[in-house]
User: Fold this.
Amino acid sequence: MAVRPVLRLPEAVLKQPAMSVVGIDDTARALAQDLVDTMRVSPACVGLAAPQIGVGLRAFAVDVSGHRKARSCHGELVLFNAEVVLAHGPVVAREGCMSVPDLTGDVARATRLVVRGITVDGEDRVLHVDAFEARAFQHEIDHLDGLLFLDRVVSADAVFHRKVYR
Assistant:
């Protein structure tokens, strides 16, 4: 469908809770495709939430395929109205975000999750995710709740300027 611009802080939509998706229709499927298309053209991107492209709806795309820190991997996936049902074992690790491109930060996240959501086909799905995929899911669900990784850093001195590799 379309590659959309990724919004950056301080855009207001990034700090507002997103609205639930009422039904999986052509508009929802087009949003899902835009999320995937935008994620695909963004280097090193493993997830993208609808608010990041200016849409205040509870939808996100994730794909950790081939990532060296991934254990579980459900491939390319778009979920609507996702919620964490169960979480285990927080671990602190560095995160970045396309909406905060100049910074990274140390964030505590659960290492294992059970997540429930609705697929592009309108099916209810329950997923068991762990390691890096669990971190990616939590990061994107935070976007749906109007939170950025900066809201979750473990301390004020755990925010860093992003390294630029040439």
